[in-house]
Amino acid sequence: MNRDLEGKSIIVTGGGSGIGRAAALACSVAGARVVVADIDAAGAEETVSAIRRAGDDAIFVATNVADEEQVEALVAAALGQYGRLDGAFNNAGLSQTNLPLHELTAAQWRRIQSVNFDGVFFCMKHEIRAMLKTGGGAIVNTSSTLGRVAMRSAADYCGSKAGVLGLTKGAAVDYGDRHIRVNAVLPGAVDTPMVQALVSDPQFADLIEKIRASHPLGRIGVPAEIAAAVVWLLSDKASFVTGAELAVDGGFLAI
Ligand SMILES: NC(=O)c1ccc[n+]([C@@H]2O[C@H](COP(=O)([O-])OP(=O)(O)OC[C@H]3O[C@@H](n4cnc5c(N)ncnc54)[C@H](O)[C@@H]3O)[C@@H](O)[C@H]2O)c1
Q1: Phi, psi of 243, rounded to the nearest 5 degrees
Q2: Distance, CA 177 to ligand 1 centroid (Å)?
Q3: Which CATH number covers residue 83?
Q4: If you measure from the C-alpha of residue 120 to the centroid of ligand 1, how many angstroms do you get, rounded to a whole number?
Q5: What residues contact 40, with CB distance under 8 A and at least 6 apart?
Q6: Which ligand 1 atom sits nearest the alpha carbon of residue 146?
Q7: Residue whose CB lies within 8 A of the most ligand 1 atoms, among 194, 208, 219, for a mutation test
Q8: How confident is the model at residue 1 (pLDDT cuts 50, 70, 90)?
Q9: Is 17 close to ligand 1, i.e. is its CB under 6 Å away?
């Protein structure tokens, strides 16, 4: 069994569903003590219960990542419970509004940016403050293949995820000399409630087949495949990796 995160204390945002839940479970299996953060208490409690049933250690901290005070409290709770913060997977996110750019209201735009972009900034700011006190750590941010290329009616999402890549590189450059590595994972289409909600929208009825066909591996991914990359990036096995964009996308960006 891979115990590459043995004893590390790790925050996972959006840990109540999909990729975040899979990552929280995988971090735990790899030996980490996990702080599951989400606005969805029921989903997050389910993740924590699954970890505890396996005999491992996790806590839930209700957090809206778009609210800096709540993020500060999340990091304080992690420090209170485990004494230090070694890693973080900043993954909470919202799907696009599904409107072309000129139809987006300011409120719709802000809703997506506040979670997908501001949320990653707030998380990194407070996580890095904690990591600086204990000599370093590792952060992984969830961007998307749509941070690199676009699809229709998703400019709000694409913009937010491209922003995450810039934030990731900026932090990697600022904190490399203080032993904090910061990387981004770029999932292709992954079978989670987010994608299930998108393809259940009648205007996207034939989308799932198109999505499959656009991935050279001929299928969409499963959350555990993203989680495996996240565990590696958080672990000391990735000790010379920082500022990287790791596509875990079935080849989507290679076309
Ligand atoms: N599923 C995909 O195909 C795919 C592809 C590329 C990138 N992503 C990204 O991966 C991440 C996870 O997506 P997923 O597919 O697992 O989606 P999901 O909807 O299954 O999970 C997202 C989780 O984030 C939580 N969340 C939403 N807003 C929050 C907030 N303000 N504060 C705290 N938690 C919040 C939700 O409650 C949920 O538990 C997102 O950032 C998403 O943009 C997903």
Answers
A1: 75, 15
A2: 31
A3: 3.40.50.720
A4: 12
A5: 16, 17
A6: 6
A7: 194
A8: low
A9: yes
Q: Does 77 map to a domain? A: yes
Domain count, the chain: 1
* Residue 202 domain flag: no
Mean pLDDT for the stretch of residues 7-11:
98
Q: pLDDT grade, residue 244 (50/70/90)?
A: very high
Q: Would you please indicate which residues are annotated as catalytic (active-site) residues?
A: 157
139 lines ligand 1 (CB under 6 A): no
From the CA of 249, how far away is ligand 1's center (Å)? 16
What secondary structure letter does DSSP report for 71?
Answer: H
State the average pLDDT over residues 116-131.
Answer: 99
Which positions ≥6 away from 190 have C-beta within 8 Å? 18, 19, 220, 221, 222, 223, 225, 226
For ligand 1, whether the C-beta of 221 sits within 6 Å is no
In a domain, 207, yes or no: no
Separation of alpha carbons 50 and 29, rounded Å: 11
Closest by CA position to 93, among listed 70, 78, 79, 113: 113
Range of the domain at 131: 9-189+224-243
Nearest ligand 1 atom to alpha carbon 157: 43
Domain-embedded: residue 214: no
Q: Give the confidence band of 195 by pLDDT, cuts at 50, 70, 90.
A: confident
- For residue 167, what pLDDT is reported? 98
Angle at 185 between CA 1 and CA 208, to 5 degrees: 100
